[in-house]
Write the structure tokens for this entry.
Amino acid sequence: MRGIVMILMTIDHASEAFNGGRLMTDSVGMWKPGMALPEAQFLTRWITHLCAPTFVLLAGTALALSTDSRMRRGDAPGAIDRHMAIRGVLLIALDAAWMSMAILSPGQVLFQVLYAIGAAFLLMIPLRRLSDRALLAVGLSLAVLDEPLAFVLMKAGLSGTLPAALLVMPGGFLDGHFIVGYPALPWLAIMCVGWVLGRRLLAWPAADRSRIAARTLAGWGIALLALFAIVRGANALGNMGLPREDGSLVQWLHVSKYPPSVSFDSLELGIASMVLAALFLACERNPGFLAPVRTLGQTALFYYLLHIHAMMIVAHVTGVQGKLGLAGAYLGTACTVLALYPAVRWYGRYKAAHPGGWRQYV
């Protein structure tokens, strides 16, 4: 699943590098009522919405699995906390020092998905002590309450403050030199749910784990998609100030990602749950199913740290940055995945042979 979302993510970043018609209308701050939403451009952007929530969900799942492995190995709680803290701080530093370099102009810093995951790792250090039910309640509460909290901050005149941006809603500071695109709390909500999924995977009997997971995830998916239909249909609270303007498909799908609304979370995680359910069954029947995609997912951070830089360098050197059409996004994606796959496969083997040291963090 991580491999699939990494490929979808590449489509969006290739669109950013090459596609002059790329749309960015995923929040009330980016959208002006009546703006055109060309279907091909919109749907190209929309399919990539699956990436961030799925990756954060699976980051929480993987963190729960790895923490359990460390506990079984005899690691002390303090050692596990330090490991999580180092991972969190490293991810935030990589966003500021490495990823910002590829996306923004020199001297600008952008906190986006790595910041959100890193901050969530830090916040999970105390939260991981909660029971599954309590942690699930925290996650669902954070997802639902982020919108009213954002409106309270706006009415109080605090929406433009740094704490609000780091935790609740995006913001820009220092004349655009420091931008927070992914506030921590709404993404922490998804990581909490992912952690609970990881704990359930560990609790289910190994012999029936895939079938139980598929059945459970399919149920989650149906419930979440039903919630999306209700919230988006009601067209009021839960849409983070970005309601439907009509009944067209693109307006139904035009949900707020910055910050994620309830309609965004329920739609994307509903789809992710259904796909995950299908993958559990497919991989049980054929363990080698989509092996190259699985390799990409096993080295997701390594690939993530390379792919945007590679595309931006190519776009700059060839002089086509932002000058191609929609086809440039898909062609750029195919070329990037194929070009980086040998490096990804090498790193996967290298990490498996040398699991300690810095490699446990990348």
Q: What stands out?
A: The mean pLDDT is 96. The first strand starts at residue 109 and ends at 111. The chain is about 70% helix and 0% strand. The radius of gyration is 20 Å.
